[in-house]
Amino acid sequence: MLRQVSRLVAKPTTGMRMFCINQTKINPKPLRAGKSGIALLHDPLWSKGISFDMEERDRLGMRGLLPPVVRNLEAQVKRNLDLIRAMDNNIDKNLHLQNLHNRNETLYHRLLVDHLEEIAPLIYTPTVGEVCMNFGSQYRRSRGMYFTRADRGMFGTMVYNWPHDDVHVIVVTDGSRILGLGDLGAHGMGIPIGKLALYCAAGGIAPHRVLPVVLDVGTNNEDLLANPDYVGIREKRLEGEEYFSLVDEFMTAVYERWPGVVVQFEDFATPKAIALLDRYRHRRVFNDDIQGTGCVTLAGLLSAARNAGNSINDMKFLCAGAGSAGLGVCSQIVDGMVEAGGMSREEAMHSFVICTSQGALGADDKVHGSPNYKRGVQEERVPWVNNTVSDGASLLEVVKQTRPTVLLGLSAQPDVFTEEIVRTMARQCKEDGVRPIIMPMSNPTSKCECSAEQAYVWTEGEAVVATGSPFAPVTMEDGRTFTPSQCNNMYVFPGIGLAASVAGITRITDKMFYVAAVACMNAMTPEEQAEGRTFPQLSRIRTVSHAVAVAVVEEALEAGLATKVTKKHVEEGLHDYISHKMYFPSYHPLLGMKDTHRHR
Q: Please, what's the largest Cα pairwise distance for the chain?
């Protein structure tokens, strides 16, 4: 219900303490809901459904409003899990979970916590892409807030329409680049809703402390504009200063009402994503596509380097995709290479070749017609031009010329990692005595650069594989079975949000993303390392989030950016302090209102 360091070292987490992050309190604190009867029963933040016992039903004016059976939370979880497993497709499963979310948030989040590996793909990637595409036709109940151009001048009062005074995390999108699906306008709301469910379940942020938001600035998607089920404004997108002025008004409004809130930008098109991050970087803001994806990719690479017994600074990278995610990932990896020591930022950037849809960002030598220069190299891409290759060179040509050891897929273009590209890379890596690392990161699965099975088969099982979407284990013809790791942002963003919430961090720095990546790597057990994994099992996500939060809070203290946590908390036990602050979905005894029930 509604309740709420020493630096991590790079060694296995044998016997890692579990603290209280996955446990129900033995004697949960009674809470006063401020309402009773049917109003309480229909409030998803407070409702227990048929878990209200008879004493509570009498105390809260509910006798006769529920069937006589009383079923505990564990039985409710099992019943809903059985119902979900009996369904044939993921969309039906998602709709069932949406309905549950709208009825009983505690049960919804407990189901997610207890069965995260099974349920998370149903509420987020890969299912959430299809959910967004059908958002209008499947719309049932409002969740979150929508700010539009028609509301200009009123954002400052609109935020008070939200009923909760203690919002800690906002996830906001303008719907312009939803996963690899493009402009979905207001139908992008499925993304903030799904992300915040993971904040609650994986990061321990209480449900009444999160807020999903869409900035509805219009859409350029002609199909949506003509769709009678579209729920957003039927106008072309705002651009230029008018667009940034609207975002400014929104940011001013939310920080006026909730001064300590963390704002996560999600699925903004590249030019705006980078500009907005630069514009608000001095506040409690981060962009998950740029910084979160980069952070979790860095964690996977650090882990892969550890497994292989070498350094991240020995790797050479070929990245397919020069959008906000692609550039953000590469920038985060460069930060990690510099932090690892022995390289300047310029030297680290020379380890990368980035390919756009036109080919490599390379020298303007006209060998391939310099297609990137013809259409104009965007400002944010200029630092990534690698003059050792010709502009417009294909992925295969770059593989043959530069002999990369890491393939990064962030293009949202399916099948761009062809068999010839992967086999060529694998052969060269074998000649050089290293294992190839293949990371097709694009979501949803339909946009993946190659499948996990293809990566394993084409490298004859030699590749270290991590994917953006979940893939099933792969069994080779010789009987070997490989389990690909999912390089999912949920390994880092819930812990970063938890740290910022608990410690009152005033600014989220690049160094914090680096320590978060190291903490994620260090959260792996010896057993997970022995299996060749690059990430911990998702079933331990709350433990990972806790470790990330501790590392980020310690860095905030070191940088003087923590306002709610002090050195005293470290001395008294920062680990326990943070675990105590983590929400765990369980039912609490509810007290009646004064004069709760008026007899007629």
A: 88
